[in-house]
Amino acid sequence: MASPFYIAFWNLENLFDIEGSPRRSDKIRRALGDSIKNWTQDRLDRKVSQLASIIIQMNGGRGPDMLGVCEVENEHVMTLLVQALAALGRTYAIVHHDTQDRRGIDVGIIYDADLFTVEVQFNHFVMRRTATRDILQVNFFTPQGRRFVVIVNHWPSRLGDETRSEVYRAIAGETLAYFHQRIREVLGNNAPVLAMGDFNDEPFDRSLEDYALSHRSRTRVVRARNPLFLNLMWPLMGAGMASYYYGNEPCFLDQFLVNKNLLSQNAPIRVVPESVEVLRFPEMVGTGIYPIPIRFGGMKTPVNLDGFSDHFPIAMKVREK
């Protein structure tokens, strides 16, 4: 049987281009203000090197077959990250699209072009009074020529007044559910769909359960006629794991959602049971009471050149017949 595909997601915490970058629009420059001050090439290079040192360790030192990312400013910084992964000897390619986010941060996918080919990509606009990240959908073909739909998300922040921002994440959840339905209508009911990202809400929040139609019951998802997702993070939550910490409180903002076509034992592409994990390599974890990720910082926060990100990466495996 073929080896499983190793898929990961990581919020890279403000992977921005350098101060004064010619690749930055005037609008984004004004929005960032002096928060980008002193973000030098040396600091960007160090940040990329730190991130790459973790990505290289994924998948038993082979690196991920596919990596969804968020909080990247542009394709240039993603290219720098791919170049820093050269030691893996893999043919990594990038899917990225500039969105209308106020600060200019985007989502993207790094994937092994020897394994996957891109059929088409879509950027689904999330309707909001102030612009936010699009939802990125990429239809891949696998080595066996099967279509595999991957959707990368980074939903509006919950910082500040969580109650007031909740409605925006509900809109994002409804947008994801709408396009999940459209995928079924266009590609057929058997299309396998994986949604991953930083949802800025937890699996039990309304944006995911009531709007994105993401649930914890495998039976409910498999038997439903409606396009539901199974949220794969529930077992890890029960084990006390977390991908993010806020005020020393564990949170599971980073998640994998799969539809029923990735769950059947006989599915052409299916999730490998119990393969979902939070990646916490020792050098990433703080030494305090709580296993908080060590931040790299920047953007008006202190820079720690030995840090990485304020989120832990998550990973899973899928197997193709």
Q: Tell me the number of structural domains.
A: 1
Strand fraction equals 25-35%
Distance between the termini: 7 Å
Rg over CA atoms: 19 Å
Protein structure class? alpha+beta
Shape verdict = globular
Helix count, DSSP H or I runs of 4 or more residues: 8
Annotation, overall tally of beta strands: 16
Task: Please give the CATH class.
Answer: Alpha Beta
Mean pLDDT: 93
Return residue spans where pLDDT drops below 50 for at least 5 consecutive residues.
Answer: none
Largest sheet: 7 strands, mixed
Known CATH architecture: 4-Layer Sandwich
Bin the helical content: 10-25%
Please name the fourth-level CATH homologous superfamily.
Endonuclease/exonuclease/phosphatase
CATH third-level topology: Deoxyribonuclease I, Chain A
Order of helices and strands: EHHHEHEEEEEHEHEHEHEEEEEE
Topology:
Layout: E1 5-15, H1 26-32, H2 41-55, H3 58-61, E2 66-72, H4 75-83, E3 92-96, E4 106-112, E5 117-124, E6 135-141, E7 147-154, H5 162-187, E8 193-198, H6 206-211, E9 214-215, H7 218-223, E10 229-231, H8 234-238, E11 244-246, E12 249-251, E13 254-258, E14 269-271, E15 277-278, E16 314-320
